[in-house]
């Protein structure tokens, strides 16, 4: 079992940066691929970024490439999403997830989500 708690969301202006954090509990974190998803009102949940167990491989959806960076610290059982140059279309509820594979949206566990709102 893995339990996930996100933090770091907030209200920012376009062009600003935010860093989301996800704290995990459970013995299997260091062996789990991890990812971030987001869901905007009226839209389907979208797979944003994924990272493999070692941090050596990552995946990004095209709309965030070059702006977002996913990373992890296995010693702290944490995964992060650094978001730069935020745009209003990045506004969504962001979820941390434990993945079966880092580059697929096959989710084993979900967090509760943290809200990111970007004003224009």
* Molecular shape: globular
Q: In which range does the helix fraction lie?
A: under 10%
Strand content: over 45%
Largest sheet: 7 strands, mixed
Cα end-to-end separation: 40 Å
The number of helical elements comes to 0
What is the chain-wise order of helices and strands?
EEEEEEEEEEE
Number of strands: 11
Low-confidence residue ranges: none
Structural class: mainly beta
Rounded radius of gyration (Å) = 13 Å
Rounded mean pLDDT score? 96
Provide structural commentary.
This protein is mainly beta and 120 residues long. The protein contains no helices and 11 strands. It has strands at residues 3-7, 10-13, 18-25, 33-39, 46-51, 58-60, 68-73, 78-83, 92-99, 107-110, 114-119. Strands 2, 4, 5, 6, 9, 10 and 11 form a 7-stranded mixed beta sheet that branches. A 4-stranded antiparallel beta sheet has the order 1-3-8-7, with no helix packed on it. Strand 4 (33-39) and strand 5 (46-51) form a beta hairpin. The radius of gyration is 13 Å and the shape is globular.
Topology:
Layout lengths: L2 E5 L2 E4 L4 E8 L7 E7 L6 E6 L6 E3 L7 E6 L4 E6 L8 E8 L7 E4 L3 E6 L1
Parallel strand pairs: 2-11
Antiparallel strand pairs: 1-3, 3-8, 4-5, 4-9, 5-6, 7-8, 9-10, 9-11
Please supply descriptive tags for the structure shown above.
single chain, 120 residues, mainly beta, seven-stranded mixed beta sheet, four-stranded antiparallel beta sheet, globular
Give a brief description.
This protein has 120 residues and is mainly β. It has strands spanning 3-7, 10-13, 18-25, 33-39, 46-51, 58-60, 68-73, 78-83, 92-99, 107-110, 114-119.
